[in-house]
Amino acid sequence: MIKATERILRFFLTAVGMAGFCLFLLPQTAGCTPRVVISGSMEPAVPVGSIVYTNRWIKQENIKEGDIIAYGLSGGVSVLHRVVETDKNSRIWRTKGDANEVSDPGAVSYEQYLGKMIFSLPYVGYLISVFKRRSIWLGTIAVGILLIILQQKKTWKSGKEKTV
């Protein structure tokens, strides 16, 4: 019974580690930043709970109407909306959420640009939100420690049997 539980826990921890690597670390090496969508302003194109990957290496000058970009507001808030108008001379865009009736108030300057949306994974962000909770992380760490203890106990026990 302990071996089966240990295998299941190992598989779970390996899967979580690989998912974290694939969803967060690997894309960042290509200049992509994962963002969890928390509002419905871009539905149906980008549903609430999606993970969106934006690439900051795509230059502002290459952004055109129809592209979806992330940009920063004061207070560290970021917005993901579609470009509906560009003015390269003034270095600004007009943006609008697909689900919104009107364009966003004010222009978005090139300095506010955080990246162009490359792709999204619908609803995967809900899973990420769960793992942001402290209790989930503590539980995962506790399971990891338990696995290490079980493995060490097994190694110690098999080593003790060989010396007798």
Could you characterize the architecture of this molecule?
The protein is an alpha+beta fold and 164 residues long. The chain has two domains: 1-30 and 127-156; 33-122, Umud Fragment, subunit A (Ribbon). Helices cover 40% and strands 25% of the residues. The chain has helices at residues 2-28, 124-131, 134-163; strands at residues 32-36, 51-55, 68-72, 78-87, 92-96, 108-109, 113-121. The chain is elongated and about 75 Å long.
Structure summary:
The model has no long low-confidence stretch (mean pLDDT 85). The chain has three helices and seven strands. The protein is elongated and about 75 Å long.
Roughly how many Å apart are the termini? 27 Å
What is the name of the CATH topology of the largest domain? Umud Fragment, subunit A
Instruction: Tell me what portion of residues adopts beta-strand conformation.
Output: 25-35%
Q: Total helix count?
A: 3
> Regarding quaternary structure, how should these chains be classified?
single chain
Q: At CATH's second level, what is the architecture of the largest domain?
A: Ribbon
The helix content, as a percent range, equals 25-40%
Tally of distinct domains: 2
Instruction: Decide which structural class fits the backbone.
Output: alpha+beta
- What's the level 1 CATH class of the largest domain? Mainly Beta
Q: What does the overall shape look like?
A: elongated
CATH-assigned homologous superfamily of the largest domain: Umud Fragment, subunit A
Number of strands: 7
